[in-house]
Amino acid sequence: MRQLEEFEHLEDKKISTTSATFGLLRKELIENLGMNRAKSFLLRYGWNLGQAHAKDVLKAGGTIKEMLEKAGELHFQTGQISNLISDRSVEMDAHGNLLSITATGEWVDSFEVEEHVKNHGLSACPVCHTLTGFGSGFTSTIIKRRVFIKEVECRGKGDSTCTFEMRLEEDWDEPGMQEEIGLYEKSRFIDELNGTYEQVVEHKNHIERAAAFHDTLTSKLSDGDSIEEIIGTIHDALNVPVSIEDLNFEPRVYRGLDEIEYQHFSDDFRAAINKTKSGKILPSTHTGTFIIRGKVHNRLVSPIIVQKKAIGYITFFYLDKDAELENETMFIRRAAVSAALLFLNEKTSLEAVENIKAYFFEQLLLKQYTSVPSMIYRGYYMGVDLKEPFYIATLKCSSEHLDVSKVEFLEQVIQSVSRYLEMQSYKILITEYEGHILMLLPKVERLRYMIENILKHLHQEHRHAEFQVALSSESDSIETIEESLEESRVALRLNSEERIASFEDVSIIGSLINSKNMLSIRRLARKELEPIFELKDHKRDELLKTLYVFLMNGGNLQQSISDLSLSMSGLMYRITRIEKLLGKELRNPAVAYELLLMLDALKILGDIDV
């Protein structure tokens, strides 16, 4: 049991003061020491005041209960309150030893409330610290056991009364009360100053380290270092593994970990991070620096923001599960800003380069060049080897809420794709062409997986739009780029429901049409059907649809009447006119097969809509 503070060696003289004077002292204490330290001082002041009065009561003698009854009178005599209302329970054994003591009560007209409200206004917590200390010190001295009072309601914080509870020290088990009891203990102000000084020094060293780190990154940026070199600098300066990842938390570059370690930690991270019910990570929810605590490692993650948009994440890895990651947020935020500046510079350069590449791509599509070797040579400067196999892809945008045909929107999508693929170090050609976005995609392993990630990225950045990619067959010559473009368009028309439509997956008739025979098939089909194509638009479309439906139904009149919503005479009139225009007998199987093949070919090529 801790011993009560004793002052037997001092001559204890009583002095008097006014409540206003005490209020001024109290005000200065709070303003100069802070509320918590002032509270500790006032509790100890009250304790010692109550202890001094208790010693006088002990000299007069009496039973414990009789001596305790004098507390209210002493409160009143010292001007602290106008009245004390209390209900005390004291239990003694047969030998007069105290077994337990509890009390509840109310201080009426507490002088501390008046002074506190006058100088500071209403408080968030009780303010009768001197009264609390006085009651605790007085009772503890009388019964020679440590007793503590807690104020539970206080007019100083807006309550209607100032009420308290009293218990033996060992009977208090609330965490907040244990902290308050600690305020009664002696503390040397110099020790607090030393502790504060050590914290200031530690904080100063932390700031200096962060400033040096920032200066190092700034120097590297001004030297034109790449993102790989910047990440290496961060790893060397902080001695912590670090990575740059895209919005899907797929890595672009990392240092301090080998491939196996990175994958191990990545699996741990994905198991720990919050996901949707379907298991998808929602990067848009991670807009600030955050901490993920896994089973085998912890990581500190901060978004890389370029022009108010997150383009990826920078991550610090910690194998020590007890590391205080909050202290490292200053470093990762500076690192994120440095990465953002680097990517902003790259973005500005990229936009200029992309404009040149877009113009170059359009030249290829329009065949506005003097020789193939010269274009291949220029392609090297664009980062694309046109001697290697490639695909032409059409990126279709659709939305119920946005006008996706606007050039501004298409440019935003092009920038999104360009930034994403730049993070993946995958060089392509991309441009807006005839209302669609076209891409020349060099052949790489897992091309479909790459396209799927592009679509995921676009969905995250443009949530009110839907995107579809239609892919041509593989081409090995830029001289066939026009045919590859047509293949991509065919794939888009025939696979309108697929997110990734491939020309190689179209119907049998579609597969018979390729870049080498596409133009000849179109010419042949239009020549055979020329008498109908020469009609006015309304009549042309009407007869083409009738012919297509009739042939698709195998010449079945009843089914054709139903599909076209015509009468028998109306259908027969149209069939007769078609046969007269084409000079062919539609019920001839060979003729019917040939005509249906031509119509299917024109439908695939987008020349007709039947």
From TrEMBL:
Pfam families tied to this protein: GGDEF_2, HTH_30, V4R, XylR_N
Give the InterPro entries listed for this entry: CdaR-like_regulators, CdaR_GGDEF, NO_sig/Golgi_transp_ligand-bd, PucR_C-HTH_dom, PucR_C-HTH_sf, V4R, XylR_N
**Domain 4-vinyl reductase 4VR, first and last residues per copy:** 106-168
Q: Which domain of life is it from?
A: Bacteria
Family statement drawn from the similarity comment of this UniProt entry: Belongs to the CdaR family.
PANTHER family linked to this entry: CARBOHYDRATE DIACID REGULATOR, DNA-BINDING TRANSCRIPTIONAL ACTIVATOR ADER
Protein name per UniProt: Helix-turn-helix domain-containing protein
Instruction: Give the lineage.
Output: Bacteria, Bacillati, Bacillota, Bacilli, Bacillales
